[in-house]
Description:
three-stranded mixed sheet; three-stranded antiparallel sheet; 9 helices; alpha+beta
Amino acid sequence: MRDQDRWEVLGRLAESQAGYVTVAQAEKAGFHRNTLRQQTHEGGRLRRAGRGLYRLRFYPGSPFEQVAAAWVLAGPDRAVVSHESALELYGLSDVAPAAVDLTLPRDSRSRRAPSGVRFHHPRIPLRSDEVRQVHGMRVTSPERTIVDALESGTQPDQIEAAIRQALEQGITTAGRLRNAVAHRPLSLRASIDRSLAAP
């Protein structure tokens, strides 16, 4: 494969991952680690974004780069941004997550989350209709995000604000929120109902 073709492959992959690629992905596209390191020097196409992670130098910046980097390192085909991190990506409430929240399949429970990242492994896997593309990342749906954040202990006033804002923005409905919590504990259903009834 020609050098230009390799860069096109890597560029398309990075664009699908908010500008990031892992060393393993770059090697699979035909790049040697030395080439990656050389491309981080002045005039190069990459910048180092962390251990085993690079970012296209000219890819537009984002206020969510820390979230995107954690998501790509965790495996963008398996990881989904969730809980308070997803609230932040949707612009719901003014919660400030203490760590990047990522939901992963239960078979990856043996993996330890790196510093600044929280892994969640739900008993019931995410359905395809519970995942959206937001800011170039796979993110839980607004309904799933709100319910997961509530269940994991996000402050009730933040949940109320998130619900109010999601309804005002038209990214969810009361019916979809009630459906999302239908098979969760009674206390969660009651909390969602209270928030929906709040003026």
